[in-house]
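Re: that chain you flagged

S.,

Sorry for the slow reply, it's been a week of failed gels. I finally had a moment to sit down with the sequence you sent. For the record, here it is as I used it:
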Amino acid sequence: MGELQEIRASGTVVRAYVAGDFASAATGVVLLHAWWGLNDDVTAYAERLAGAGFAVLAPDMFGGQVAATIDDAERLASSSDDAAVGAIVLAAIDDLANRLGSAAGLAAVGFSFGAAWAIWGPTQRDRLRATVVYYGTWVDSVLAEATVPVLGHFAADDPYESPETVREFEKGLRDAGREVLIHRYPGTGHWFGEPSRDAYRAAAADLAFDRTVAFLRDRL
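Prediction finished late last night. Pasting the structure tokens below so you have them in one place:
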């Protein structure tokens, strides 16, 4: 089982959930949580990735705060400081890179709020070789600032990420010359991959996880 640790990298101190066999893993994942914070869904997903052979580091971007309701989650996300969150993400990437060494392949996986940071991460750190996003996008020029392949999991009915937004995201990546693979899951809504939410759909979540593992193994 993994554990919460305090990590220090790039001058930033970060609380993070760490899982996996770092002594033997050749690949690592920075796992970036949704606007709920570093909750049990995140640590459970980290354990699943660790079980698939990845070393995983999931930083706490909200300083220990965890939301249960949408109102609380909106408050956490809207009150977060972009510069501070960015520093946390970079510290997590740097710490994972230092732990695994220069030969290890690294990726970022992000859920919703964390998806945007998973897209941003490779623009700042070329150690990241792939990005996976769950129902989260970024649609401006930042997409041309990195070259890593992107796998996206999106719900069929999602008020936060409309089909038009997802198409714009996919087009932006392709226009930038990047490899992109988008999956849409029928009968699902936002948060379908998070077991604590009413929107959770086990079959779609399991399929998305299997696709994520296959993508990461192939690209890393």
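What I noticed first: The mean pLDDT is 96.

Talk soon,
D.
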